[in-house]
């Protein structure tokens, strides 16, 4: 059975003994969820008696509930496991390795009060995630009909929206245009970044507007994809290794002159707004 212990508002306390059933596991998860609704972070205290034994249904119920907790791991501050059972202590230490964001410590039954004091300490605030630096940089060129950019890192939804904002006005120019994309340390993209509605519309429009598209330094999987779609669209795509960058610029008919801090299409954007 699982007995809920009243330790403090920020600690979910339990005493485990005898057979642990599915109902016991469900009760433990319910109490934990209620604590998380009230507090940004909580700690866990589990006192495991020598008579404790998990039933099959208890294990199954625990496995069913685990996936729902994975996104909340950062909200668990500490976990104190108090037991004299070696297999429970080993399992707790293993979980401390797997779920390394939680400070897991094992205490002997004789150190119960020490464990309660430790686990009851006020949790540190959740760390504020740092805003990642933009992965897209726009390149200035000496040809008004060449749009150039560089992707360094992971492409995120915010980067995609910036590309759309810069590239859409560029496609309003008279005649055909060329594009050059340089990839440095590219490590994939967030799924939502490629399903942006405006980006999809822009890609469709660009197939009839862009004459040449030079791509420098792509990963093998992206090279294969581009080589597959090349025959299916009007735009001529040519892939270049990083050592062939000079040839890529020559092929699109431009040279790099610096970073386009304001974007090559800002003039058109302002004119359109006027």
What do these coordinates show?
- By secondary structure, this protein is of the alpha/beta class.
- The chain has 2 domains: 118 residues, 2-Layer Sandwich (Transcription Regulator spoIIAA), CATH 3.30.750; 138 residues, STAS domain (Transcription Regulator spoIIAA), CATH 3.30.750.24.
- It has 10 helices and 13 strands.
- Strands 12-11-10-9-8-13 form a 6-stranded mixed beta sheet, sandwiched between helices. A 5-stranded mixed beta sheet has the order 1-2-4-6-7, sandwiched between helices.
- Strand 6, helix 3 and strand 7 form a beta-alpha-beta unit.
- Helix 1 runs parallel beside helix 2.
- The radius of gyration is 29 Å and the shape is elongated.
- The C terminus is likely disordered.
Write the layout of secondary structure elements.
Blueprint: E1 2-8, E2 11-16, E3 19-20, H1 22-38, E4 42-48, E5 53-54, H2 56-69, E6 76-83, H3 86-98, E7 103-107, H4 112-119, E8 136-141, E9 146-152, H5 157-170, E10 177-184, H6 191-194, H7 197-209, E11 210-216, H8 220-229, E12 236-240, H9 245-252, E13 256-259, H10 266-273
Parallel strand pairs: 2-4, 3-5, 4-6, 6-7, 9-10, 10-11, 11-12
Antiparallel strand pairs: 1-2, 8-9, 8-13
Helix pairs in contact: 1-2
């Amino acid at each position: 059975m699982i007995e809920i212990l009243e330790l403090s508002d920020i600690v979910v306390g339990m005493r485990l003994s005898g057979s642990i059933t599915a109902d016991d596991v469900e009760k433990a998860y319910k109490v934990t969820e209620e604590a998380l609704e009230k507090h940004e972070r909580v700690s866990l205290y589990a006192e495991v008696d020598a008579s404790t034994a998990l039933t099959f249904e208890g294990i199954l119920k625990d496995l069913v509930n685990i996936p729902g907790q994975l996104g909340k791991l950062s909200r668990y501050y500490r976990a104190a496991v108090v037991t004299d059972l070696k297999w429970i202590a080993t399992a707790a230490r293993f979980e401390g390795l797997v779920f390394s964001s939680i400070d897991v410590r094992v205490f002997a039954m004789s150190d119960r009060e020490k464990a309660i004091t430790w686990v009851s300490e006020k949790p540190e605030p959740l760390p504020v995630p740092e805003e990642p630096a933009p992965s897209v940089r726009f390149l200035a060129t000496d040809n008004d009909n060449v749009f150039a950019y560089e992707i360094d890192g992971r492409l995120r939804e915010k980067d995609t929206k910036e590309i759309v904002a810069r590239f859409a006005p560029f496609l309003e120019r008279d005649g055909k245009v060329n594009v050059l994309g340089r990839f440095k340390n590219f490590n994939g993209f967030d799924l939502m970044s490629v399903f942006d509605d405006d980006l999809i519309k822009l890609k469709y429009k660009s197939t009839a507007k862009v004459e040449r598209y030079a791509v420098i330094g792509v990963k093998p999987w992206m090279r294969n994809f581009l080589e597959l779609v090349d025959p299916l669209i009007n735009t001529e795509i040519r892939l270049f290794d990083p050592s062939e960058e000079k040839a890529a610029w020559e092929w699109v008919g431009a040279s790099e002159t610096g970073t386009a801090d304001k974007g090559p299409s800002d003039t058109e954007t302002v004119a359109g707004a006027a």
